[in-house]
Amino acid sequence: MIKSINPATGETLKTYEALSPEGLEDKLQASADTFRTFRSRGMMDTRLQALERLAILLRDRKEELGRLITDEMGKPIKQAIAEIEKSASCCDYYAKNAKTILKNEEIQTEHDASYVRWLPIGPVLAVMPWNFPFWQVIRFAAPALAAGNTALLKHASNVPQCAMKLEELFREADFPRHAFQTLLIPSSDVAKVIEDDRVKGVTLTGSEPAGRSVAEIAGKMIKPSVLELGGADPFIIMRSADLKAAVETAVKARTMNTGQSCIAAKRFIVHKAVYLDFLDKFSEAIMALKAGNPAEEDTDIGPLATASIRDELTEQVETSLSEGATLVVRGSVPEGEGNWYPATVLTDIPASAPAAKEEMFGPVASIFRVENIDEAIELANATRFGLGSAAWTQDEDEQKRFIDELDAGFTAINGMTSSDPRLPFGGVKASGYGRELSGLGMRAFLNAKTVTVD
Ligand code: NAP
User: Fold this and answer.
1) pLDDT averaged over consecutive 10-residue blocks of the chain (454 residues)?
2) Could you tell me if the CB of 190 is within 6 A of ligand 1?
3) Cα 128 to ligand 1 centroid, rounded to whole Å
């Protein structure tokens, strides 16, 4: 049984039966059958027009869809609506740019013609997380379908309503009935889908253990995979930083989606010259955030998506405190039902503590003081992860060093890491491999076929 539970109230909203083995077989076959005609270059305009319609549907229904996200995983409503708008912009981007991205790449040789032609590969499985239940799916599916692949979605088990709604929206946009299908299956069934001959690739956005498992099976089956995993992103503030802007951005970068974002800034590394000033202003801004009902427009901090996420975060913070970390401030949260966790600021964190070395998936900021840029870079890189990074400095030499020496898939200078359909997105180290979005992301599940003509 797959349950949709409102994390702000604990109320069960809806339950679903998991897909039977026969149901799964039908969907896999339908995906492979649809690919036979869907793949053709002649279908390109039809595919791109459907993507344009999907963008319109998303925008027309952004309030209703945003509300669904809020009810099912607790995202504050304003951010949930923004997620729908961003998903629509991803559809627009590929509807507009797919033809250019998929253009043959001519290469001069002794042949009459030689070039790379980008061809779809078939049904691709997407194993997706709950934290951006529309955006994560659309950022995979829009380029995949534009290119002529078909898509199978195994969504996180706490967002089945979003998963079913996505399937409905793709159909309503006039994609062929089985071009995008949701599989309501438990994660224990993912292996057999990857192993199925009809499935040609797999992308997973989620935790490190899930990534390791999927990569192992994809490797055994020799199928392409993309992994977008966790992060413990550094956010560095040097002495020349515009401190007011840095604080404002730091608060947003840590608390967006109630801190449950892979690219949230999680470790704030502050130069000694501005450390106390930053800590004061940051703590003050954290305490000013409004926690409560995520369906209210002015809510900044909602509940965490599940009780187990709250319990894990509680354990990480308690262990960090018992190992010597200092609790600087802790906000307030509503009493009673719901997976509430207060916005929290920690300092004096020993290197062995969870707040220094693990991903903290919630509104908890770890703040570190450093003497100089060498120490800042060393600390920033002292993690298994390498997803995003941000560095605030007006000094051009420092900027160059951060760009070249931070081990991450993204470095934002005087800003925060955020995904954008026009820019590639992905990590290094245990944050995964491969890229999503932009042309690079679209090509992840394509055959770069070499053609020579004489
Ligand atoms: P999760 O537990 O790994 O779940 C993600 C998806 O993987 C779900 O659909 C889940 O299904 C499935 N899954 C879990 N274990 C699996 C296994 N052994 N084999 C196959 N599939 C498996 O992660 P989460 O808690 O939902 O999401 C939070 C994590 O995602 C964080 O680490 C976050 O940083 C990361 N994330 C990364 C990005 C990025 O772009 N890099 C973006 C967003 C989130 P069930 O729900 O049925 O277990």
Assistant:
1) 96 97 98 98 97 98 98 98 98 98 98 98 98 98 98 98 98 98 98 98 97 98 98 98 98 98 98 98 98 97 97 98 98 92 98 97 98 98 98 98 98 98 98 98 98 98
2) yes
3) 6
CA 340 to chain CA centroid, Å, is 22
How are beta strands 105-106 and 113-120 bridged, if at all? antiparallel
For 395-412, write each residue's pLDDT tens digit.
999 999 999 999 999 999
| Catalytic sites, residue numbers | 228, 262
Is 185's C-beta closer than 6 angstroms to any atom of ligand 1? no
- Copy the structure tokens of residue 215: 């990569």
The token pair that represents 278 in the structure block = 């930053």
Which domains, ranges and CATH numbers included, belong to the chain? Answer: 2-229+428-453 (3.40.605.10), 233-413 (3.40.309.10)
Atom 26 of ligand 1: nearest residue by CA position = 129
Q: In what order do the strands lie in the sheet containing 344-347?
A: 326-330, 344-347, 364-370, 265-271, 233-237, 390-392, 412-413
Kindly give the distance from the C-alpha atom of residue 433 to the centroid of ligand 1, in angstroms, as a whole number.
15
Residue 320: CB atoms within 10 Å: 27
